[in-house]
Structure prediction request, 391 residues.
Amino acid sequence: MSGEAQIEAKKTALSIGIVGGGQLARMLVLSGARLGLRFKIYDPAPDACAGTLAPLTCGAFADATALLAFARDLDVLTFDFENVPASTLAALTDDIKIAPNPAVLAMTQDRLSEKAAFAALGIPVAPFRAVSTPLQMLQAVQELGVPGILKTRTLGYDGKGQTRVDKLSDAETAFARLGLSPCVYEQLVPFSRELSMLAVRSENGDFRSYPLTENVHDAGILAVSLAPARTTPELAALAEAYAQNVAERFNYVGTFALEFFQVAEALVLNEMAPRVHNSGHWSIEGAECSQFENHLRAVSGLPLGSTAVRQPSLMLNWVGELPNALPQLAVANLAWHDYGKSARSARKVGHSTLCAESFEALSLKLDALQRQSPTRAGGLAQGLLNRYLRP
Ligand code: AMP
Prediction:
């Protein structure tokens, strides 16, 4: 079928259910409304921020019966939150179209199976050991050495559920600190910088990637993204090959992110997010078709949009509380995103994306904004842009 015929055949407004009602769901709804898609949200929290844009059903992620009832009249079920219990997902699969497929969600829910899957694909990961007992913890630290990071196998994100180990004598306390739950101990990677690749694959196997994005974290939480990252063509091609390899191996449908550490001219994969990702927010204004729209196109069986960059883009994450909106709104070509959440420590409450014709122009605009209304993310972004302009 030609692209036009496909679009014709899909004209009826599809109904999409999103499991998880946070800011990712909210931005999916914002981009999908323009395509004529209709949405329903499922989240345990009655004040989930996507619930102001689409009907919200409240229920636990582990409640398979409630999720089944929610999903019954949908055309497709997708996610802004990937940690839905595998057993719940298994109960849904027979009756409902789910994208991305639950097998990939289950794989990424457990850091051990995730690392093993990537290693099997020939993608470098930090040397690691599974840890389930204090003795295994001691052995892992003896074998891999220090410094290292102990991470819970499940439910860790934004630096939560992990602790650094600097001495062999810290091994047992570190394991106890994470509640003696099943963990992975991994070597600390001596990276020069953190990069991510957003990519999307459609039902018919069309694959596209966005250019590599450079990310700066603050206390384990993403603070700044700059795209396109300045890299060699070889590094960009390597990241794209890894992403395509992962997408094809898992028959992936939708947008996903791979988070890398750069070590010299190699990439070490830290983790995969089987969903749209914070480090791709810049694509709303900075790319021809955003990660959100491309995810929806993919899961709806529509042709993918271009992932080409319109302009160099800088994303500043607002964590904990929003800065004063007015100086931000006064900057030309700055997009202000307020997720409608109340302020809370370590909570992502919004972001700004600044676009300009060059890194120099981005830097000038950012410096002016910082003079007027300094923010911590802005300061980190100044440091990053300085490295680009004055290496
Ligand atoms: P994660 O929860 O795995 O995404 O980790 C959050 C952040 O901790 C990463 O973005 C890195 O800044 C840092 N980190 C995690 N694992 C490692 C590692 N093996 N080596 C160095 N830094 C790490």
Summary: Residues 233-249 form the longest helix (17 residues).
